[in-house]
Amino acid sequence: MKDRENRQAEPAVIAEKAQSIHARNMEKRLLRVVEHIHSAQPQELSLDHLADIAAMSRFHFHRVFHAVTGETAAQATRRIRLYRAAMQLVQGSCPIDQIAAEAGYATVPAFSRAFRARFDLPPGQFRQRGQLGPAPRPPLIGETKMYDVTLETLPDRRLAGLDHRGDYMAIGETFEKLNVLASSRNLWPKVQGMLGIYYDDPDATPAQDLRSFAALEIAADADVAEPMERASISGGATAVLLFKGPYAGLHDAYKYLYGVWLPQSGREARDAPCYEVYLNSPSDTAPEELLTQICLPLAA
């Protein structure tokens, strides 16, 4: 009897160990990024390069780093580089323009503005004072709200939609245009759902540069003409987080998905962007009743 119970327990034990190994592996990859930030030249600190150091998809690295550490990779780079500059100012005699260049700033005024914002003094006065102080700490991460996440095998999706550039919270206007096009072309009988694809991390990318795609899931025989564009989402293993509430609350759900669930899941994110499936519409649903599936494609 005990042998049978032990055999039945083995899969759960193995899965738990695999998740623990995966979490430690992700931790090591993020530590590798921090070590790189401390030692690399400014030209080696692009966000895409840091994603390569972490061996993560560029679609997901920024969200994972921010959710786990409490700051974006760009904020961590700025904090670490400026503290190193502070050390050079107090402990060495390098010219300020050289220190600015090594910190990744093209001009001394740009460096001075960033330095003063961090240390409340311009570089010259900071050097004259001669007091370094403790290294600034990363922000503390507060308690994270929990969400239910399910593992699903989803089908391929055929899409018709419009590109959106800018603040994600303003994508509603693009969806409105898409609705008008679908109505004027009698496309609704071929529509099977409404989705949004979000390519960038809003915490790491300026709002005006965010890229997204407002989309309708369509039947194979649907006629798609300009200005709409065809697109597709490959099916397969997907983590699906069901969020209930106003769209403004989705940010916390993403933080949980990337900062808690993914590191502990034992799974790897696929090299494909996250997307949202809207199960009802704000046009006839109260904000607190809106249902959104956040879909994170997973590697096989």
From TrEMBL:
<dbReference type="InterPro" id="IPR029442">
    <property type="entry name" value="GyrI-like"/>
</dbReference>
<dbReference type="InterPro" id="IPR050908">
    <property type="entry name" value="SmbC-like"/>
</dbReference>
<dbReference type="Pfam" id="PF12833">
    <property type="entry name" value="HTH_18"/>
</dbReference>
<dbReference type="InterPro" id="IPR018062">
    <property type="entry name" value="HTH_AraC-typ_CS"/>
</dbReference>
<dbReference type="GO" id="GO:0043565">
    <property type="term" value="F:sequence-specific DNA binding"/>
</dbReference>
<dbReference type="Pfam" id="PF06445">
    <property type="entry name" value="GyrI-like"/>
</dbReference>
<feature type="domain" description="HTH araC/xylS-type">
    <location>
        <begin position="31"/>
        <end position="129"/>
    </location>
</feature>
<dbReference type="GO" id="GO:0003700">
    <property type="term" value="F:DNA-binding transcription factor activity"/>
</dbReference>
<dbReference type="InterPro" id="IPR011256">
    <property type="entry name" value="Reg_factor_effector_dom_sf"/>
</dbReference>
<dbReference type="InterPro" id="IPR018060">
    <property type="entry name" value="HTH_AraC"/>
</dbReference>
<keyword id="KW-0238">DNA-binding</keyword>
<dbReference type="InterPro" id="IPR010499">
    <property type="entry name" value="AraC_E-bd"/>
</dbReference>
<keyword id="KW-0804">Transcription</keyword>
<dbReference type="InterPro" id="IPR009057">
    <property type="entry name" value="Homeodomain-like_sf"/>
</dbReference>
<keyword id="KW-0805">Transcription regulation</keyword>
<protein>
    <submittedName>
        <fullName>Helix-turn-helix domain-containing protein</fullName>
    </submittedName>
</protein>
